[in-house]
Amino acid sequence: MKSFLKTTAVAALLSLPLAATAAETAVSDISVEADLSSIQNATAASVWANLPTDLESALAVQLSDQIAADGEDGAQIMIDITSVELASSFESVADLADSRISGDVVIERPGDQYDEAYNLTVSAEQAAVLLPAGSDIMLLAPGSTEFYTAMVGAFANNIAEKMQ
Fold it and tell me: What distance in Å separates the CA atoms of residue 89 and residue 5, rounded to the nearest whole number?
């Protein structure tokens, strides 16, 4: 038992510098690309037309205390949205959970800090926690402002958590 506790304590102590480094990483650039011409659903195309700009803004707000000063070296966050899928109004309410945003995320950190590259998919169910109080995601249309804002916010939250 003592051996386990010592091993756990050592592992915890060794992980502290990594956690501190990640939390202190300044962000110098956020870029989002999305080929929205590939969206076949006309409603999705019109509702989500400003997705790159809105996602950049949502992420910048969430990372506002980590934005690098001019000339300061910081992490570059690059996002390529690969898929936006919305349940249509003709589908059942249960299919709303099939709505999702997917994209490739690359975080290039300065110096010898580790870089990350991963695919991120956020579903409507994950975004439900970001809806205004009293809202029910199953009662919203996929084209509503509340739904859109929650989906963009959930995607940004996931990336911001990686930067904490």
Answer: 55
Cβ within 8 Å of residue 113, ≥6 positions away: 21, 22, 25, 75
DSSP 57-74: HHHHHHTGGGBPPTT---
Q: Identify the band that residue 24 occupies on the pLDDT scale cut at 50, 70 and 90.
A: low
Closest CA to 72 of 43, 110, 108: 110
CA terminus-to-terminus distance, the chain: 33
Q: Is residue 9 part of a domain?
A: no
Alpha-carbon span 149 to 29, nearest angstrom: 22
- More confidently predicted of 12 and 100: 100
Please tell me the pTM assigned to this model.
0.77
| Residue numbers of the domain that contains 127 | 25-163
Three-state DSSP class for 9?
helix
Q: 98: domain CATH number?
A: 3.40.50
Calpha distance 76→73 (Å, rounded) = 9
